[in-house]
Amino acid sequence: MNHVIEKRSEGSRSPFVMNTQCPFCSVQCKMQVIQEWKDGAKPSYTIVGVPNAASEGRLCVKGMNAYQHALTEERLQYPMAKRDGEFVRISWEEACSMIGMKLRELQESYGRDSVGVYGGGSLTNESAYLLGKFARVGLQSKYIDYNGRFCMSAAASAGNKAFGIDRGLTNPLSDISLAKCIILSGTNIAECQPTLMPYFTRAKENGAFLIVIDPRVTATAELADLHLKVRPGMDAALANGLLKAVLEKGYVDEGFLASRTKGVGDVRKHVESLDMAELAEMTGIEEELIRKAGEAFGAAPTGMIFTARGVEQHTDGYMSVRNLLNLLLVTGKLGKPGCGYGAVTGQANGQGGREHGQKADQLPGYRMIDNPEHRSYVASVWGIDPEELPGKGVSAYEMMEKVHEREIRALILMGSNPVVSNPNANFVQEGLEKLDFLVVADMFISETGRMADLLLPVTAYLENEGTTTNLEGRVLLREANKAPLGECKHDWQVLCDIAEELGRGRWFSFESSEAIFEELRLASKGGLADYYGITYDRLRREEGVYWPCPSVDQPGEQRLFAASFAHDDGRAELVPVDNHYPKERVDGEYPLYLTTGRVLSHYLTGVQTRKSPSLAAREIESFIEVHPSVARKYGIAEGSLVSVTSRRGTVVLRCHYSVKIRQDTVFVPMHWGDVQNVNKLTSEQLDPTCRMPGFKVCAVKLERLY
Ligand SMILES: Nc1nc2c(c(=O)[nH]1)N[C@H]1C(S)=C(S)[C@@H](COP(=O)(O)OP(=O)(O)OC[C@H]3O[C@@H](n4cnc5c(=O)[nH]c(N)nc54)[C@H](O)[C@@H]3O)O[C@H]1N2
Ligand SMILES: Nc1nc2c(c(=O)[nH]1)N[C@H]1C(S)=C(S)[C@@H](COP(=O)(O)OP(=O)(O)OC[C@H]3O[C@@H](n4cnc5c(=O)[nH]c(N)nc54)[C@H](O)[C@@H]3O)O[C@H]1N2
Ligand code: SF4
Ligand SMILES: [Mo]
Fold this sequence. Notes:
Shape: globular
Radius of gyration: 24 Å
Bound molecules: ligand MGD, iron/sulfur cluster, molybdenum atom
Number of strands: 28
Oligomer: single chain
Strand order of the largest sheet: 5-4-18-17-16-6-7
CATH topology of the largest domain: Rossmann fold
Helix content: 25-40%
Strand content: 15-25%
Structural class: alpha/beta
CATH architecture of the largest domain: 3-Layer(aba) Sandwich
């Protein structure tokens, strides 16, 4: 395995133990990476899961192999600038002065907002916080957003509106085994958070009835007592069906509705007016099964609902989640052991990354940038005049539109690969080609990195200390184990250096991630996501601390809403939800629904997992999952290459027959770029409330290739 760095950087030949946590998904499994020199000069690695309250010592195949990409010499090791189409090595001094010159020039000619910042949910809380501050105080630009827009925005908006607060799981994971009925909708835990599966098998052993809603029979669906193979994009209508079944049978917690909620009257009226047979027709699920699911949930003494991107990544994702929250509220299943909601967070720091100001409309601690009180509080922490804070910008994909329009002329990307992960990827690529200056801070040269004018090498998780907040809302400290590779810098250091170059250094004079965390604590104090009571010392001593945690002597709140919701009147809000169809429907020309998602061994756009030989070998290329009866209709053989076309583009994929998928639907994973980039097909239409794209449904046609 010549990918592994052979340098014995940590000195002796005795085993070198690195205590860390997996950089990939939101479970944030704790692990040890043990480096040994058994024989010969090459080190070998043993990976051991470390017991902790979330993963309980388990690891999945990605965690087991996450050392490989972090230790490969294929990583970026020094800044590189593009000269005559080729990347050449330059020094950090040259890189910084180039950034300073370019950004000053553009901002002087076209205004401060001509420079945009685009972040990611892999960044630590410290870097994510600083990125938000960097955009507003360093660049004084309103244009900042991040890849979590594509991930968490529908559930976050729904949680905020319904409950007054958004935290991935309202309950600790240990509550799952107390739930007697569990709905998993559009969440494929078995492949995406595999180490959580035992929580669900344990619940089943305790007698829980498990309902999975997914157009495919996933490994998660195989565990279900009832699988509703929903037509993509029809979750809002399906939830109406579940509500109708519950209301008709009277499985309603009237006391809870009266004392803790508002808006149920309108929901009752709306749901009564709907016709169950029509709902069955729309969703592709028999009436009897809808009733069975609704009644099982209503009748159970305790119950939880989990959603992930299958429900959320739609142009009505926000309303679909709201409707499932309606179901929880009507049945009174919140704020009690075994009763709650979970928006299963995706990225390592998908939760913390959405709390401290990477979002276009947000300031640290979940404060809002258009709220005068919030502005003045955060401005006081930052030592600036509130007037100097820019207003709200636009969402991630809309930033790409601004790039096209040349309103944004330079972009600083940190922790994302937008030409692969944005919808309508051909358009996004065209836009980024128009930029005057593209800076990409990454560990590798991603598909977007290839387009950069300047590449900045950053440290990997083994080198980079900082906190992440896992899907439970539990803040964890990940200590650094190794010196940075080559000339790599931490993300936050890069931001401090650029700010210094721009003459804004006095707001960015941090020497450690802990120093940034100290400021974050203060900036979040009194906000919804209050981290004030959390310190590095506490995180070292305790097993992580849940937010909100307003003071150092408080434990942090494990289970939310025991006594009240976070709205000013303490009440949760129900809202009637219409049956939405996806904005793009199938027709004679594009007869199949395409849905997209993940496989076990790869992570997001695959930049990291494809650099791991063990993971790459498990799945070497993308594919399209097609029902055999549909494939045969088009004369497409199992294993052959097929061209897949939507109104926006074409990709070429290998056909996998699968009887597990609906016959009107095909599935493609999102982990590959270039000709296999499924986002060349997906649509640019966004959810009107949260600006989430409809990644989970568009219309396509298949053609066999010879
Ligand atoms: N192995 C792996 N794990 C990951 C990641 C990864 O890339 N690879 N990424 C992480 C991140 S950032 C995220 S956000 C999470 C994502 O975690 P998930 O959201 O669980 O993953 P997806 O595969 O995107 O989608 C989940 C399921 O939604 C189904 N689905 C598609 N359309 C619909 C629909 O209209 N309605 C319903 N109800 N279901 C539908 C799909 O068939 C799929 O099985 O995973 C995290 N964990
Ligand atoms: N069709 C379709 N598209 C989707 C989705 C889908 O389900 N279907 N899911 C969406 C979702 S949920 C998500 S979260 C997005 C994610 O999509 P992206 O934002 O593109 O996420 P990654 O592929 O993780 O890209 C992260 C890049 O940052 C680098 N990186 C990793 N860690 C760090 C770090 O600490 N610092 C820095 N500077 N760089 C780092 C990686 O090497 C990689 O190049 O994709 C979205 N796009
Ligand atoms: S990918 Fe997620 S479940 Fe797997 S080891 Fe990493 S953190 Fe744990
Ligand atoms: Mo995500």
